[in-house]
Amino acid sequence: MHGVKRVHQSSEAIQARKLKEQAKITEYLALANDVLSRKTSEDWSLEAFRLTTRLLRTNPEFYTVWNYRRNICLQGIFPNSSPEAIYELICEDLVFTMNALKVHPKVYWIWNHRRWCLNHVPEGPNESDLQGWKKASWERELAVVEKILDADARNFHAWSYRRYVLASMPVSRTEESELAYTAKKIESNFSNFSAWHQRSKVYSSLCESGKLQFDQFKKQELELVRNAMYTDPDDQSVWIYHRWLMGAGDDSELLLQEITAIQELLDEQPDSKWCMECILHYKLLLLQKHSTIVDVKAVSEECQTLLKQLKAIDPYRRQRYDDLAAAVLRL
Amino acid sequence: MADTLLISHHVSYIQKLGQSQDELAYHLTSHLRLNAIYWGLTAICIMGRPDALSREEMIAFVMDCWDDNAGFGAHPGHDGHLLSTLSAIQILIMQDALDKLDVNRVVSFILSLQQPSGVFAGDSWGEIDTRFLYCAVNALSLLGKLDLLDKEKTVGYIKRCRNFDGGFGSCVGAESHAGQVFPCVAALAILDRLDIVDYDTLGWWLCERQLPSGGLNGRPEKLEDVCYSFWVLSSLSILNKLTWIDADKLTKFILSAQDPEGGGIADRLGNMVDVFHTNFGIAGLVDLDPVYCMPAVLIEKMGLRKGWTALERRQITSK
Fold this sequence. Notes:
The complex is a heterodimer.
Chain A: H1 11-40, H2 46-58, H3 63-77, H4 83-103, H5 108-119, H6 132-151, H7 156-168, H8 175-188, H9 193-208, H10 214-231, H11 236-246, H12 252-268, H13 273-289, H14 296-313, H15 318-330
Chain B: H1 7-17, H2 24-28, H3 33-46, H4 55-64, H5 82-94, H6 103-112, H7 130-142, H8 151-160, H9 178-190, H10 199-207, H11 226-238, H12 247-256, E1 265-266, E2 273-274, H13 275-283, H14 296-301
Antiparallel strand pairs in B: 1-2
Helix pairs in contact in B: 3-5, 3-13, 5-7, 7-9, 9-11, 11-13
Domain Prenyltransferase alpha-alpha toroid (chain B): 5-286
Organism (chain B): Amanita muscaria (strain Koide BX008)
Family (chain B): Belongs to the protein prenyltransferase subunit beta family.
């Protein structure tokens, strides 16, 4: 149970509630038992299908009933239906699950059922456009997922589902349009790490497929990050993404440039933990990977100073800072 | 606000759960029953009260959940699933009743769910998740059947879920999430492949989950929640970096989420309690094995503990 306030109830109030619930329990159990016994007797009728609708409306987490509903379709309804009828039923199930998601946006089983629906959209509507229904359904799906992400921009079910939809669409979206989407989500809230994460994945896939080089987007990304840092220097999301941009720290020029830039922000915000943490991390990379081009003694001392400051302003993580200080001494 | 662990309250809260048939919520959560029994049993075991629930009844119930088509369901009449199958195995082991189990059938059910990519599906409908992969690895290890698993393929999938921040997600491409970091890291610990983990980066990401309240969140810029105390703590424990967070502050946070009247622990102060948060709250405080999420003494006795140490008992027991 998440985020539900505990209210103190008198024993009379509890008794009254239980009494009121009794009728509901009887009705619910009668329905659940009816559905489960039909399942056991392999009842694949339309009537059984309608009963699963009623039951799932009350309890969308009843995974066994979702399974049964799909078996009714596969064993009973689909074999005797035209493609038009199958498509219509699937569209109805997509509406049904959309309404369920509005109330229960984090129930795995509802998301699963949508995947199944989309994978069972038949070919049609006609010979000349066999992919027509599929294309339309997947296009609509992307819009659905965006609606859910509008309501909760961090819903990880929705983000995972979004990646699934993007990978499954008969007509793929371009990576550029996904970059535009993540930019929109980030600009409306810099603290949305899910969107930053997605952005890193899109860029990574563009780089891996050879369509893009890091240097082609480096400048623009650093600028986006810079804006976010200055807007809210206490927000972790942007700093974590910055670390991704810096990668393993092989580019010493980039490290030096970013240390200088973040130092400017730190001068303005002398208590900023994340400025210190990042400068420290990049200086450690300088020591580990570029010891020939930096003054090792001076940089090590700067690291120790930063670690002392971090320990003072962020005492919960003091032991990590101590461990790092010991590691610097060993370098 | 309580500053000790209210053991007798929590034990009586867990005992009452099985007798709440007059509450609608009891019936609406039947799809989680076997998991709930595992949470409740683990909690009473680590609180030193293993006899607080009837052993015979529990074993009979578990066996009633057997689904002839596929492993254990969460409740009699429900479909088999990997999540409830692991719970069933864990309960039978804690109750020393593994002789009831047709080990070969369970093992072949589990192995049948591995996908060509190396990940596991939860059931034949095909939902995949690194949580299911962990369930499979944990269960096979508990049953002494890990040698039947294609380890390379399994580890290969976890590796592909690793993100630049050191964490792991629910599937390839997914955002790092403490609730997914735990199953991935624990599976790697069982498979002796912690070399896949970037200790410093993941340790950093995990310790940054602690917020000023002392509580831990599951992802950057999210709210703290008691259940993450176990996911984050156990992962840190496996990496031997438990000292990277402030354990006293976390203890206070968990204790503050207790219901000092009815017992049980909520996600955070002032909220409704449930058995899931009760178990994972207590788990963050006392002798739990961080890999198998079962009483540490038991895992030690079975000879399954490797390089990691149990989550120590903190000084919070009620007098």
